[in-house]
Write a structure and sequence with these properties.
Layout lengths: L2 H19 L6 E7 L3 E4 L2 E9 L11 E9 L11 E6 L3 E7 H8 L4 E13 L4 E11 L5 E13 L8
């Protein structure tokens, strides 16, 4: 290889590296976790509670966890119109619910359906996020708690990218 080709390769390579280092778009990694399947009756509500226990960083970056919750049936198919997106600031809790009659009408003709809640977390490099989630199943009319599950997800951020966790 001639000296000109080597020199040109070095210049182009350093330009590409400079462009990568100057990139201002935050790096986003997506993680997904599921709760165990739960039988939901027509008169019950399944609710995922999302809590961000992270503090705002000392450099001024506000703590924030973003992502989505979906509810899937026994075949793994997402229930149409169920779930939603979330953005949870430091110290804030956000619930996302599914009414049992909606779960049952889209998945079965019986009075009970097996439903699984799936939490997808978008981890933004440099943004503090420590998401804790719980799942409740309760009577839609009285609010009486029937089931409580702790932690389909418990993810703390930031971790340096490239480290295995």
């Amino acid at each position: 290889m001639s000296i000109h080709k080597v020199f040109l390769t070095l210049i182009l390579g350093s330009c590409g590296l400079s462009a990568l280092m100057a990139q201002t778009t935050p790096t986003v990694v997506t993680r997904q976790a599921s709760f165990a399947p739960v039988g939901v009756a027509l008169t019950e509500t399944m609710q995922v509670n999302l809590f961000n226990q992270a503090s705002n960083s000392s450099n001024g970056t506000a703590a924030s966890c973003t992502g989505s919750v979906s509810f899937v049936d026994a075949s793994g198919k997402a229930i149409s119109g169920a779930g939603g997106t979330f953005t949870v600031a430091a110290g804030v809790t956000q619930p996302i619910s599914l009414m049992g009659n909606k779960a049952n009408s889209s998945t079965t003709t019986g009075s009970r359906a097996e439903i699984r809640a799936v939490v997808t977390l978008n981890i933004i490099h440099g943004t503090p996020c420590s998401l804790v989630d719980t799942l409740e199943l309760f009577d839609s009319t009285t609010g009486a708690l029937h089931l409580f599950l702790n932690g389909g997800n418990s993810i703390s951020v930031p971790l340096p990218f490239g480290f295995k966790d």
